[in-house]
Design brief:
alpha+beta; Immunoglobulin-like; 4-stranded antiparallel sheet; 44% strand
């Protein structure tokens, strides 16, 4: 084989191995929702960011939400985290990361819904069609 053929074979292999990377980064838009589900008139404070994007501080009223949409990067390194707090506690957590099971089963193909409640933070499970407990509020630690 000549060097050009070797290069072509390597390129084809790389493209085949990165098929899911290409699918998520080019074809799909993802969306994250942070929903205030407190039963009291409590504002949820949320500061969300990724390595490349700081989405700023948001004051989410009861039954309100903050949401954003994006495309993942080609190498599947996209990860968003949020620091959330209110008068009864705080938590810092990852709200989106590229993982086939997480995106399809929990986020329903890239539409992640996180909801605060009086006792913790819940993620809507697309598979189970209900909010499922993920994180307990901790008044002293994030």
């Amino acid at each position: 084989m000549n060097p050009t053929q070797n290069l072509m074979i390597m390129l084809v292999l790389i493209l085949c191995m990165s098929q899911s990377l290409v699918t998520y980064s080019i074809m799909n838009r993802c969306r994250v929702h942070v929903i205030n589900g407190f039963s009291t008139n409590e504002t949820l404070e949320a500061h969300c960011k990724s390595k490349d994007d700081d989405l700023g501080l948001h004051h989410i009223p009861v039954h309100g939400e903050f949401q954003w949409k994006f495309r993942t990067d080609f190498f599947s390194r996209t990860r968003f985290s949020c620091h959330m707090w209110w008068s009864g506690g705080q938590k810092t957590l990852d709200v989106f990361w590229v993982d086939d099971k997480f995106i399809e089963n929990e986020c329903g193909g890239g539409n992640c819904r996180w909801r605060s409640q009086n006792d913790g933070i819940y993620l809507y499970s697309f598979v189970h069609k209900q909010y499922r407990f993920k994180y307990k509020w901790d008044p002293w630690h994030s």
